[in-house]
């Protein structure tokens, strides 16, 4: 999969007003106090026919995070998916728990596919947060559209491992050349393959 990248994703934040002016509709909104922030922030999920964005803003209506996605033509468990293609939290708000509620809100509304590339932070989010949501199953997609299955033919679940070591990691995460050269990967990723044809799929329990 996600090929691991040491560089961050784009950092241009767009407000919910920008999307509404472009004709996007508000599908859902929530007020949440992320665990590391201690104050309420607003999560607005906006969508159009082909894409959307979950926009997070603080009490002063300043945009502090964007989670952009496209609607995928792929179908799993008789439901279409969205594919996350960019997530960015404003400096000063990073590491305060903004992202997990955003992904949970998206998974409540859609089946969610990971991007083909992940920063270390994004990979950490999938490994230790999303895979730990109580009512969510995280599946592994191989060869672009096939669920990874065990010897009995059952879909393999990617679950949080409190030891920090997951035997599935080197079958999911690959390294790009720059990461290999820097030798800074905090994850036991494959050192020989980029695994760009592997993705993760998050689905609510009652959908799968």
Describe it.
It contains five helices and twelve strands. The longest helix is centred in the middle third of the chain and has 11 residues, at about 100-110. The strands form two sheets. It has a nine-stranded mixed β-sheet. Strands 8-1-11 form a three-stranded parallel β-sheet. It is about 15% helix and about 35% strand. It has one domain (about 5-205). A hairpin with a 2-residue loop joins strand 5 (about 65-75) and strand 6 (about 80-90). It has about 210 residues and is α+β, with helices and mostly antiparallel strands. The protein has helices at about 15-20, 100-110, 120-130, 170, 175-180, and strands at about 5, 25-30, 40-45, 50-55, 65-75, 80-90, 110-115, 115-120, 135-140, 145, 175, 200-205.
Helix percentage range: 10-25%
Strand ordering within the main sheet: 2-3-4-5-6-7-12-9-10
- Strand percent estimate: 35-45%
| Overall pLDDT level | 85
Low-confidence stretches: none
Q: Structural class, judged by helices and strands?
A: alpha+beta
Count the E strands: 12
Oligomeric form of this entry?
single chain
Rg on CA atoms, Å? 17 Å
Taking the sheet with the most strands, its summary is: 9 strands, mixed
Amino- and carboxy-terminal Cα gap: 22 Å
In one word, what is the shape?
A: globular
Count up the helices: 5
SSE order, one letter for each helix or strand: EHEEEEEHEEHEEHEHE
Total tally of structural domains: 1
